Amino acid sequence: MSKFVLKLYITGHTPQSERAIGNLRRICETELQDQFEMEVIDVLEHPQLAENDRIIATPTLVKSLPPPLRRVIGDLSDKERVLLGLDLKSLP
Fold it and tell me: Residue 10: enclosing H or E segment and its boundaries?
């Protein structure tokens, strides 16, 4: 299995941002074990990175590797939707 490269864009340390970070960590630890790299990017501190990745809403999860590039918007509380977004699960 290829290593997953994930970027989570947040806006400050809000409850929604903290929830998204926690949800992503849980999903990665249970589903990807040690096969992931995760970076949390605060758009208030790094607006250029958000602009480069065309982030229009936060929190947004961007999966850059393995291809294809995928995005999931929201606090990542819907585990099934996140797994679909990461190509770890297919539609029934």
Answer: strand 4-10
